[in-house]
User: Which sequence fits this backbone?
């Protein structure tokens, strides 16, 4: 079903010039992919030694009609000039039924619906290839629609990731699959911010644990909140410029976090500027509560937005425990953003409790409540930063900005280790005791003890 959903939508009917067959080309401006079918000359003459001659150059005789085969091509679409309607198709062709096997091709489709380029056998020199419109009315309209669809895709909204049913891609891989070359830069910026956020949150947690409270600490916190606010604004700018905008619930969660960080930035700025002013003190308490509530609501929205896709079960209905462990595993990247949102939700609950108690009835507030909330809340946030960093990695950008998925799949490693232990136990149970069967082994005086100990490994 996932493959069917990604099939291209705009169809061009052409005439390819090597075999003289019709070419049906389908393009998708969202995925920037194309595929097509045409009919190679499988055999001009059953007795001919040259069955792959193109029909345009050597038409078949009347008494020996050409036998048509079936060929496919697939590739990606790139625009050669941002100001024109010309596209360059690069990919591969394959003969399903035909005289050849396959190879690469590259074609430039112009605004008139024609195309010129080359095709090549694997390891051979390129051969010229021409595509001509089979009808002007059939070509110009889909080609123009392809460009229009690409422009209108700038404002297209992706459906909520919480409704996913496919676990073959992670959250960010699926969110960036339509961004082309810019997806790598977006992923790297997200991973870089993830590292910055982790170290800032860890530093805030250590300052809370050590009870560091001074003008210097307020200045550091003000700088931290400024970085948070600026980077989250950059996320919103990136989302607005993406070809396919991320899910609305996910964007709303990021917006709430951004406004919350702006509230905390104002709080620390007021502490630095007007620490002894009563009006500024009340304003700081109100902003502290407002920022905590924004984080609380934003975390709830992100928990709903990042719900992992369910696990596929083909032959039976899973139990609730199997479903929970498979869908909401804490050591699976598919659920990393979900658990990051959950930990932020827990921390936000504590901060909202502290802020509301401080504003509504500060006299009844326990003396050590703020200390406990600060340490526990930042501890939850630090764990959440690790999950968010893990969830921000893609197949093109891991945590070290390299290609490949980040992290170690602990679940698969533990299962593999468990299989090894079970296998060792079974071997131990079924392996015979060679000393009982053959008696004590006669040891050669020249053999070392390490050689004797290595023999059981060779038997296993």
Assistant:
């Amino acid at each position: 079903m996932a493959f069917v959903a990604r099939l291209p939508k705009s169809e061009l009917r052409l005439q390819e010039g090597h075999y003289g067959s019709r070419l049906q080309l389908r393009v998708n401006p969202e995925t920037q992919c194309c595929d097509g079918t045409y009919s190679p000359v499988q055999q001009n003459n059953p007795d001919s030694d040259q069955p792959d001659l193109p029909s345009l150059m050597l038409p078949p005789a009347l008494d020996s009609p050409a036998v048509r085969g079936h060929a496919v091509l697939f590739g990606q679409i790139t625009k050669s000039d941002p100001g024109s309607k010309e596209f360059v198709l690069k990919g591969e062709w394959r003969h399903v039924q035909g005289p050849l096997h396959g190879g690469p091709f590259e074609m430039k489709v112009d605004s008139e619906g024609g195309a010129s380029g080359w095709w090549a056998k694997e390891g051979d020199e390129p051969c010229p290839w021409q595509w001509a419109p089979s009808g002007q009315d059939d070509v110009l309209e889909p080609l123009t629609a392809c460009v229009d669809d690409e422009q209108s895709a700038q404002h297209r909204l992706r459906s909520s990731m919480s409704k996913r049913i496919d676990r073959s891609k992670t959250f960010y891989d699926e969110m960036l699959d339509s961004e082309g070359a810019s997806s790598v830069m977006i992923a790297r910026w997200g991973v870089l911010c993830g590292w910055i956020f982790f170290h800032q949150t860890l530093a805030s947690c250590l300052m809370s644990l050590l009870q560091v409270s001074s003008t210097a600490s307020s200045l550091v916190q003000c700088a931290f909140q400024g970085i948070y606010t600026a980077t989250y604004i950059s996320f919103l700018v990136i989302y607005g410029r993406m070809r396919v905008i991320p899910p609305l619930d996910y964007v709303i969660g990021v917006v709430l976090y951004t406004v919350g960080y702006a509230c905390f930035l104002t709080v620390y700025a007021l502490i630095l500027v007007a620490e002894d002013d009563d009006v500024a003190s009340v304003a700081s308490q109100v902003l502290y509560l407002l920022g905590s509530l924004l984080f609380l609501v934003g975390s709830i929205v992100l928990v709903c937005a990042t719900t992992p896709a369910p696990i596929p079960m083909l032959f039976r209905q899973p139990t609730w425990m199997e479903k929970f462990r498979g869908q909401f595993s804490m050591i699976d990247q598919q659920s990393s953003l979900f658990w990051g949102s959950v930990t932020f939700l827990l921390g936000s609950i504590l901060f909202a409790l502290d802020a509301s108690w401080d504003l509504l009835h500060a006299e009844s507030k326990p003396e050590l409540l703020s200390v406990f909330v600060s340490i526990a809340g930042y501890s939850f946030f630090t764990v959440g930063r690790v999950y968010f960093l893990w969830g921000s990695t893609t197949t093109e950008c891991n945590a070290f900005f390299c290609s490949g998925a980040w992290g170690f799949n602990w679940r698969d490693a533990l299962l593999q280790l468990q299989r090894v232990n079970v296998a060792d136990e079974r071997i131990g149970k079924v392996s015979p005791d060679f000393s009982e069967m053959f008696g004590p082994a006669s040891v050669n005086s020249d053999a070392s003890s390490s050689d004797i100990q290595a023999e059981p490994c060779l038997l296993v």
